[in-house]
Amino acid sequence: MLSHTYRIPQANATAQLDGPAIALAQERARAERHVIECILADPPKMLAIADGESLTQWDFGQPDHRILFLAARLAADCGRGAVLRLARAGLMAFKLWDGGRPRGSRAMMHSDATLSELATAEPANRAICRFAVRRLRRIVARQRRARRLLIEARRLMEGRDAV
Fold it and tell me: For 109-150, what is each residue's pLDDT tens digit?
């Protein structure tokens, strides 16, 4: 007789990771939005902080946030109005524009109202921007590490050596 019992693994062990993965994705979306709000408050000054923290377009997982970041990057020296016009054009080109979207909308679709809201949500504060950028970078690092660990776990379970 066996002195202990064996647990049979669940059929879908990755289902246990769904909740934390969704929570981390939501946390990243909020952090991305906060960084965009900070940058749009004063693009030249806040981009200097983002550059100092090595923030790139690839740190933004949501396409609308990446477009907004790139618009700020390209037009920062021309002022916030130029950044918002370029952002509008980019969002339209990528079918992320819905002119009727009200303020307060949290979807990836944007309008003049949502762009205005993003641009005025945060004061141009260097400390807040630095905090927001560092927080986003930490979240991105956590997601990338989790992805690498999942790939390694899959290789181990399939009998292949982990790389």
Answer: 899 999 999 999 988 899 999 999 999 999 999 999 999 998
- In degrees rounded to 5, what are phi and psi of residue 61? -85, -25
**Segment holding 155, helix H or strand E:** helix 126-157
The DSSP line for 107-141 is SS-B-HHHHHHHHHSS---HHHHHHHHHHHHHHHH
pLDDT band at residue 1 under the 50/70/90 scheme: very low
**pLDDT: is 101 or 82 the higher one?**
82
CB 56 within 8 A of CB 137: no
Structural tokens at position 63: 């396409």
Cα(28)–Cα(50) distance, integer angstroms: 16
Q: How many Cβ atoms from other residues are within 10 Å of residue 103's Cβ?
A: 12
Report, at the CATH architecture level, how domain 31-136 is classified: Orthogonal Bundle (1.10)
Domains of the chain, by residue range, sit at: 31-136
SS3 56: coil
Q: What is the pTM of this model?
A: 0.83
